[in-house]
Please model this.
Amino acid sequence: MTVKKRICIVMPSHWSAAFGGAECQVSYITKKLLSYAELDLTFLARRVNQSFEPNQYKIIQIQSCFKKLDRYAFLLGTKSLLESLNKIKPHVIYQRVACSYTGVAAWYAKKNNAKLIWHISHDMDVSPRTRDLGPRLKIADKKILEYGIRNATNIIAQTRTQSELLEKYYGRAADKVIKNFHPKPSEPIIKTSKLKVVWIANFKPAKQPELFVRLAKELSNKLDASFIMMGRIKSDSDYQKTLNDIKETDSLSYLGELEQSEVNNVLSSADLLVNTSVMEGFSNTFIQAWMREVPVVSLCVDPDDILETNRIGIKAGSYEKMCDAIVKLALEPELRAEMGRRGRQYALENHSLKNVDKIVELLR
Model:
């Protein structure tokens, strides 16, 4: 009887409990892995939706030894994670979203002749910064992560920049640089006469949602446009002022957290995607927008200079220049349409689900 190859995916969250860019990407990887009958898949995560029923694989929750301190670090789940790994005895571990799980998985893999494939999900993952991390638990979490970076069997980067940071700060090159991926759009792309400008992200300080609210308020006097925000707010109290400002801006609407298909439907009729983040890994929303002929206007982020090099968006560099770029593209529909067409072509050629196969090659 052939023994199935045991694969463990280790993440802070399963996508049924918290949906972000990394969870989105892992959902596509999981689907692909399940197409191979010779693989036995288990998903380990701290945040799990107990009502979600997985098909063809198991989900095991990583338990914390002191839940009141969970928000400070993931290392409090070390005992639970190791117990699960020792029970499952995986041949290969795939870990994404940098945290102490990276180091714990690397330690287990070294001790048990297993492989750890670590996938960088953010530029900060490969930055050695420890200042401003706050409580000592967070600093310890970072140190355990760095052990994992140095001892992972293979490392996948999303961008050339991430590979360069990995080599600069940790002395090793990424084994593969694999671009993020999305399925080809199935919904029709229909642009209306009124300009639609969208912002998509979970509300966090680094995403700077308040800047888009400010932008919508100021540009409402210059443009006949509708402004739309989508994303999860963990606590309304943290963004009460932002929510109040949204309500007071007639041209701006907040749709809350949407299913992926709903986000794509909004993008299919959008004209511009605005990104106000300080830093990203590789924003999935960029790919989703490009595939639907939506140029990107970004405040700070342009992974590997893709926006500027391929002329599929604009990296502004300042709030004032971001506003100027939006006005320019709003008033020049032919330029906007051409950027959109190039964006779709670029995304279909570089960010298709064919990239999933490159990851699966390492896991199998």
